[in-house]
Write a structure and sequence with these properties.
This protein is α+β, with helices and mostly antiparallel strands. Helix content is 45%, strand content 21%. It has a 5-stranded mixed sheet with strand order 4-6-7-9-8. Strands 1-2 form a two-stranded antiparallel ribbon. Strands 3-5 form a two-stranded antiparallel sheet. The longest helix is centred in the first third of the chain and has 33 residues. It starts with a helix and ends in an 8-residue tail after the last strand. Bound molecules: adenosine-5'-triphosphate and magnesium ion (MG).
């Protein structure tokens, strides 16, 4: 795979800037980037920013320990560190979104995969210990799907984090599975949280749309992109003040139809 530096080197050149009579002028050979080039370029830039950003975070942490700061200075350092972490989250989501490759299909016991994601979730700092996850698995427990394990784990993770962020700490979220029309395996994540207004519902699939102070707005865009690459679709039902259910439907394929 090309490194960020190579991508940048191969990307279409920006227009040449020439100093003329003390002013800068754009030469007329400016070529618009194709969507693929744009995505590669964005991924290259994100990759380039990531390493120095992590170095900056590490330096701040070391200086913080050495100086043993107090009061306002300590708070400023904490803000700088949390902003570094936020930027790092934005960049990794951006890279996952930009580089979403074709799924690597493998036979996976989907309920086992879900249990693994739910176990990891329990150790995430965003998961309140008082929260309950209710399982309603109606699809056969041994159901095997041809899916990309990492991508579908990421999809479920994004939906669960959204649900957790939408409900009070001592509330519950519900995870349901079922088969539909013998063709689809459907997985729903349901919360009885804040819900969405009709205006928000219209925008949630757009990359970078967020109503959260620390959100990147790439979670649901990624969900849709990955599920579509599996030949599936996503359904959303939400009402302000009532809650939200997001359902992903993945095709049930037999072994013969797998390339
Ligand atoms: N379960 C939910 N309940 C209420 N609103 C939701 C829910 N899931 C998503 N949303 C709304 O959709 C927006 C977009 O969600 P998305 O997951 O794409 O980004 P995000 O959660 O804001 O940021 P992140 O990139 O960290 O996931 C959210 O900001 C929120 O307004
Ligand atoms: Mg999200």
């Amino acid at each position: 795979m090309a490194t960020g530096r190579q991508i940048l080197r191969n990307a279409p050149r920006p227009p040449e800037w020439r100093a003329e009579r003390g002013r800068y002028q754009v030469t007329p050979d400016l070529q618009p980037l194709s969507p693929t080039q744009l995505v590669e370029w964005v991924a290259g830039v994100a990759h380039e920013i990531r390493n120095p950003l992590s170095a900056i975070g590490n330096c701040i942490e070391i200086i913080d320990k050495q100086l043993d700061l107090q009061g306002d200075s300590k708070e400023l350092v904490a803000i700088a560190l949390s902003e570094c972490e936020r930027l790092d989250r934005v960049l990794s989501n951006l890279l996952s979104f930009a580089r979403c490759s074709e799924p690597l299909l493998q036979p996976v016991n989907v309920h086992e995969l879900m249990e693994r994601v739910l176990t990891t979730l329990r150790y995430d700092t965003r998961f309140p210990p008082t929260m309950n996850v209710v399982r309603d698995f109606r699809a056969p427990l041994q159901q095997v799907l041809w899916i990309d394990r990492d991508q579908i784990s990421q999809v479920l993770w994004n939906l669960l984090i959204n649900a957790i962020q939408a409900v009070p700490r001592d509330n519950a979220i519900k995870v349901t599975t079922c088969l539909e029309e013998d063709d689809w395996f459907c997985l729903s994540v349901q919360d009885k949280g804040v819900g969405m207004s009709p205006e928000v519902i219209q925008k949630v699939w757009q990359p970078f749309f967020t109503t959260k102070t620390s959100g990147t707005g790439l979670g649901l865009a990624m969900v849709q992109q990955m599920v579509r690459k599996h030949g599936g679709h996503v359904r959303l039902r939400s009402e302000e003040g009532q809650g939200t259910t997001v359902t992903i439907c993945l095709p049930l394929r037999d072994n013969a139809s797998i390339p």
